[in-house]
Design brief:
It contains one helix and seven strands, in the order βββββαββ.
Length: 142
Amino acid sequence: MAIMTREKSVGVCEHCHKTFSFYLVHNGFNDSAYAYCDSCECSVSLSGWYKHIPARAHLQIHKCISKDVEPFLKSCPCGGTFRADASPRCPHCLEVLSAIAAKQFIEANAPGSKKGWTWECTWDGLYSIVIEDKVVQDWWKV
């Protein structure tokens, strides 16, 4: 998986104000798609190169999954569901994190910010976020 920053950065929840580690994934660099759990901070990364992608899932890479993909994914290890419309959650209070509020800590930690890179302020764009290393890979139902 191609990662924007290898070292973990620190984010702050706008709800409980506790800190957590995170890194961004540039899904264009690694030909992947992603989704977030609707119950916890876990995310799923789906490689476009994985050999057993169900044809009926119609996976489109470089962005968040579509609703068509949801039925083909296993449940999150927490028991929740990876959804196209779910957003990342704080690992402490489990509240949904605002992509706009995250701009402050994401840009503060991104090396590219010094050269003009700015956060896209959305959880369904080219970048995904992995919080506290909670990510599963190619999590397809068998």
